[in-house]
Amino acid sequence: MSREIPYKTYLTEKEAPRTWLNLKAFMKEQHDPFLNPATGKPCAPEELEAVFCKECVKQELNSADKEIEIPDGIRNFYKTFRPSPLVRAYFLEKALGTPAHIYYKFEGNNTSGSHKLNSAAAQAYYAKQQGLKSITTETGAGQWGTALSMAAAFYGLDLKVYMVKVSSEQKPYRKEVMRTYGAEVIPSPSDTTAAGRKILEEFPGTGGSLGCAIAEAVEAAVTTPDCKYVLGSVLDHVLLHQSIIGVESKLALDKYGENPDIIVGCIGGGSNFGGLIAPFMADRLQGKNNTKFIGVEPASCPSLTRGKYAYDFCDSAKITPLAKMYTLGCDFMPSPNHAGGLRYHGMSPIISKLYHDGYINAVSVEQTKVFDAAIAFAKCEGILPAPESSHAIRVAMDEALKCKQTGEEKVILFGLTGTGYFDLAAYKAYNDGTMTDYVPSDEALQKSFAALPKV
Amino acid sequence: MSREIPYKTYLTEKEAPRTWLNLKAFMKEQHDPFLNPATGKPCAPEELEAVFCKECVKQELNSADKEIEIPDGIRNFYKTFRPSPLVRAYFLEKALGTPAHIYYKFEGNNTSGSHKLNSAAAQAYYAKQQGLKSITTETGAGQWGTALSMAAAFYGLDLKVYMVKVSSEQKPYRKEVMRTYGAEVIPSPSDTTAAGRKILEEFPGTGGSLGCAIAEAVEAAVTTPDCKYVLGSVLDHVLLHQSIIGVESKLALDKYGENPDIIVGCIGGGSNFGGLIAPFMADRLQGKNNTKFIGVEPASCPSLTRGKYAYDFCDSAKITPLAKMYTLGCDFMPSPNHAGGLRYHGMSPIISKLYHDGYINAVSVEQTKVFDAAIAFAKCEGILPAPESSHAIRVAMDEALKCKQTGEEKVILFGLTGTGYFDLAAYKAYNDGTMTDYVPSDEALQKSFAALPKV
Fold first, then answer.
1. What do you get for the CA distance between the two ends of chain B, in Å?
2. Which of A272, A416, B201, B310 has the lowest tally of Cβ within 10 angstroms?
3. Would residue B157 count as lying in a domain?
């Protein structure tokens, strides 16, 4: 093991970043604005402020400031789970026999188990600062709901989480974590909102959907005094908060004079990848590096590699503004056999724009290969990775194996976004040999594209 | 927040300890030796080596060397999950309004979720060095089995885990983590051993017991070539490995010139508490400090506070040597409503001896009060604690509240041994208001004591 670069690097409290990096301020062209689906016109700030906190809307629309100060109140909470470690994967390098230097930034060392807490902290803080009493959100598998319940507890806010009903039944313990932090968890559809009651009337036995849970959470927010709605991915302000991942990574790598040749991240809504690449992409846009950025998506939900760059709804209930993004169509659902997360139909408008302009590469991988990589990684590096994160592990390993062929000592950085504690049903399927792969047909995608809104 | 002492302190790789601390070498009197129950005579090293690895037996019987070198092979694996953070609990202090300085050493930031990995790493390494092909162990709730499967995967050893059958059915995902790391998990009782077959014949529908699982694991080890048995608590060599917790804590506290007035840890078998206090107790035994050491046990399983100091079997199957320790009797079982772990009938012989000689204080607490503390802690410090660890949180909070009364700025250090991810059924009971307390009656304990072996 090299004597020079330690296995794990934690920044000290004094070294911890005091600002987020606003990637948009480095882009020559901005992505197209959100549109109000009723009017087809760009959303005014007031329209967004009816749903979201003021400061978040301000950040959403800010493409001028390169750095945004992280308030002390957020930096305090960050201290409980950040800085996260940057790890030199010596044991993985050795197992692969590669000359590449592999690094990963591990965001799973907090009770929510993922990077989601970075933005939950910021959004809950701003809600409190605005004088709100409560916030609402939806959650599917429960990672985001857990993160937000931790943040709401820390800042002293009430929180209602609309949790997709089938998920709340299949994952009762996820619900219990949220309750332990004081959140009210409501299986959706519920009779607490008009949207929920309507769905229950039409489909009495339904297990719910993320689209319905979003509709309920937004309705609850706009009909409750001193309450706003909070979203965990896709939006520009979420990517801003997640830039802490990349800023810390760069500070740590700079200590060792290491510049990534390749940065790999998994992409679902794009918040983790957008956060990880932020400072490196900012440099790239200024011609300061020649880093290759690779977003990895599941072959069963290939929004960048096979989607359309078009305006679409952000949710399947079609209540949100329209976003210009790579999308599979808002009704697209990955096959039920898909176990690896990253099942969002669209993609962050910032990531979509950068991909469209040729700054980002994307690849898709099948899930059995993803789990092969996950298990090889777990055995030599100790951490049981989330299936989502394992998409990045897969491609980082593939790139490192190319280096073994060519003898190149490339520096590879990947994002390890979370732990696999709550995905053990998927690991069981893999261990039992019952996991299968799935790739949607061209016909299915064409059908889905045909339903895109006409703008 | 103080500018001087950071919220979290990680030792750097260069600062990480190179030796374990052998507390026994500082004790004026040693605990009584293990006895062979058949002969009533002290166990010879060869008898122990029939079951355990040679190096572990050597460590078990070593009361001469004050420091034992940690081999590079173990220090390498330690790098994947150590050093663990020492946290100044500023947010808990603020929530309590106490002038006390509260610190905790958090051992849950690894995939096994607890401190158990410290000894699993060492024991798997020594098994590999001895040229063994495989190891066996038993596990109840699964924490120890998970830790050992991670270590076995890292060093390339086969591992058989005999998991209490009812536990393997109630916690299928725990089993899945072990399988993911390549362990063979066998629900116990099984037909793979004579001990298991005998139990199955007598009690066809049994859900198993830890005693039976130990018997199966030991039988499998002694009847398989190149295979030994590995145990996760109680024994002196396990406490030796766990001393890494205390040694790191002391190095970090020394940086800030802080000397603990009070050290609090939960006690089940005693491995975590013994490890945490090791260097501080060594100083105490040399008259270098006046620290108060408090072991916290559940009121429903009060081995130190209400047990007898006597020779007893280490397991309920009565196949192990006899140990002189505080015990409730090897057939003692805490009430089924007991959710907080720490359900071992006995106590580490080292801890028992130190308690008997007046160097350690012990208190017992009821579980609803333990969960009150757990939730208060989770909300302000972020981490969802294991119920076991929450026994220490409870008493650390109580001591800090005493300081609030007296105005004393005492330094309190407690051990946060693990996370509560796999204990959410207990949190659910608490959240639902269905958790109750239980204290065994004097009559029940007297009955249990009557069955102690006559030595």
1. 57
2. B201
3. no
pTM summary value: 0.96
> Does residue A170 lie within any of the structural domains?
no
How many CB atoms within 10 Å of residue B180?
A: 25
CB A161 within 8 A of CB A149: yes
Q: How confident is the model at residue B1 (pLDDT cuts 50, 70, 90)?
A: very low
For residue A89, being part of any structural domain is answered with: yes
Q: CB within 8 A of B72, min separation 6: which ones?
A: none
Q: Using a CB-CB distance cutoff of 8 angstroms, which residues of chain A are in contact with residue B375?
A: 180
d(CA A58, CA A50): 13
Query: Whose CA is closest to A321, among A240, A236, A381, A406?
Result: A236
Structural domains of chain B, count:
1
Residue A310 lies in a domain: yes
**Per-state percent for chain A, helix, strand, coil, to nearest 5:** 45, 15, 40
The overall longest dimension of chain A from CA atoms, in Å, is 66
Is residue A241 scored above 50 in pLDDT? yes
The β-bridge relationship of strands A8-9 and A86-88 is: antiparallel
**Residue B113: closest CA among chain A residues belongs to which residue?**
A421
User: Where in the sequence is the domain holding A356, given as residue range(s)?
Assistant: 8-16+70-113+235-449
* Residue of A53, A51, A57 whose CA lies nearest to A33: A57
Residue from the list A13, A77, A427 with its beta carbon closest to the beta carbon of B176:
A427
Give B35's DSSP letter.
B
Residues in chain A closer than 8 A to B1 (CB atoms): 76
ipTM above 0.90, yes or no: yes
Q: Write out the DSSP string of B349-404.
A: HHHHHHHHTTS-EEEEE-HHHHHHHHHHHHHHH---B-HHHHHHHHHHHHHHHHHH
Euclidean distance between CA atoms A105 and A417, whole angstroms: 8
Omega of the bond leading into A42 within 30 degrees of 0 (cis): no
**Res A1 pLDDT > 50:** no
User: What region does B382 belong to: left with phi over 0, alpha with psi -120 to 50, or beta?
Assistant: left
Alpha-carbon distance of A35 to A48, in angstroms, equals 11
Residue of A nearest to B15 (CA): A6
- Residue-by-residue DSSP string for B305-355: HH-EEEEEESSTTS-SPEEEEEES-TT----TT--SS---SS--HHHHHHH
Q: Which residues of B touch A80 (CB under 8 A)?
A: 7, 91, 381-383
What digits encode the pLDDT tens for the residues B265-293? 999 999 999 999 999 999 999 999 999 99
Q: What is the pLDDT of residue A422?
A: 84
Q: Shortest CA distance to A179 belongs to which of A166, A190, A165, A163?
A: A163
User: The domain that contains B300 carries what CATH number?
Assistant: 3.40.50.1100
Please give the interface size between A and B, counted as residue pairs whose CB atoms are below 8 Å apart: 110
Cβ atoms within 10 Å, residue A336: 8
* Three-state secondary structure call for residue A339: coil
DSSP 8-class letter at A340? S
